[in-house]
Write a structure and sequence with these properties.
mainly alpha; 80% helix
Length: 333
């Protein structure tokens, strides 16, 4: 009787373990399905963001039909900072560091954004939107190269990406007479500013609430651009009214909505997906320029764009796949 009772208890215990394992597997399956849905929604959001950021190049060009490059940049970044302000209140998250340190770090980032965005904005007057988009995207290549001088490790595959990107830049920008458009040079110089911003942001963002830091850096960038506009540009009320649609697109959608959606999307995003999708920004920029402005590219330039995109993806995805180095974060446009 005792052995029989012990055997029954063992059978019941095993059955309970089987049921428990079954319930765990069901929970794991449900969690996997939930994560898949969340990552899919994140992919759609990031694709929408890439479309916004790519098409913003068109708004930047159209805005300069009415106002100068400095005033356009000033208005869109100040507007973007104002749009982000309510998030600071509704999120209710406290600042990690002191207010003084927040403004100091934010001012440094804002200065770098101002350098990058003004080089990009002025350069758009002398080059095509496709060239501007693809050359700006080279920051994902420049970031790991600069990292070498900061004693960061760089995966060997990144050099393949660098080579393809440089070769693609040659086909895109260098003409048959071996001349490079002034706008392309300005875009290329500005790319180093975007790369410096990514590297600094990866360090400074850990010290502060990201939304507060963004508000400060966008506001500082806007004020620097406004000062440059007051010194170098003349404005009239008619010009400002004419530029309002482009300013709203660049400020509300690109800076305000684009950054906000990026924060929420990347919570559930798969890193490799983010690297691919955000690299498509330059492609969307070229498509938007073709649809809205009728800009076209030669077969040589299209081949260059293909090589540049391949280089960007290799530099981002191969180290990520091998889990050696993380992909670079997209910058705010």
């Amino acid at each position: 009787m005792t052995l029989s009772g012990l055997g029954k208890r063992r059978i019941v215990s095993k059955w309970q373990k089987i049921r428990h394992a079954g319930s765990l597997s069901k929970k794991a399956a449900i969690m996997t399905m939930t994560m898949t849905r969340q990552s899919f929604r994140a992919d759609l959001l990031m694709l929408f963001i890439a479309m916004i950021w790519g098409s913003t190049f068109v708004a930047q060009r159209l805005g300069m039909d009415a106002v100068g490059p400095f005033f356009y940049s000033a208005s869109r970044f100040i507007l973007g900072a104002l749009i982000l302000l309510p998030l600071v209140y509704f999120r209710g998250k406290k600042e990690n560091g002191s207010t003084e340190r927040l403004w100091r770090d934010g001012a440094l980032l804002g200065l770098i954004i101002a350098i990058g965005i003004n080089l990009q904005q002025v350069g758009l007057q002398y080059t095509s939107i496709a060239n501007a988009g693809f050359i700006t995207g080279l920051y994902v290549i420049i970031v790991p190269v600069i990292g070498i001088f900061l004693h960061h490790k760089m995966h060997p595959s990144t050099w393949t990406g660098v080579f393809l990107a440089l070769l693609g830049t040659y086909f895109l920008s260098v003409r048959d007479d071996f001349q490079v458009a002034r706008g392309d040079w300005l875009q290329l110089i500005g790319t180093f500013a975007w790369a410096a911003h990514v590297l600094l942001l990866s360090v400074l963002s850990k010290r502060h609430d990201p939304i507060r830091l963004s508000v400060v850096q966008f506001f500082v960038c806007g004020m620097i651009c406004l000062l440059l506009s007051l010194v170098f540009e003349s404005l009239s009320s008619q010009q400002i009214v004419k530029a309002i649609p482009a300013i709203l697109y660049g400020g509300v959608l690109s800076v305000g909505l684009g950054y906000t959606l990026q924060v929420f999307a990347q919570r559930n995003a798969i890193a490799s997906h983010a690297a691919i999708i955000f690299s498509m920004e330059s492609v969307f920029g070229a498509l938007a320029a073709w649809l809205v402005l009728g800009e076209t590219l030669s077969s040589r330039a299209i081949f260059g764009c293909f090589l540049m995109l391949a280089g960007m993806l290799i530099a981002q995805l191969v180290p990520l796949y091998l889990q050696k180095t993380p992909p670079t974060e997209p910058h705010a446009h």
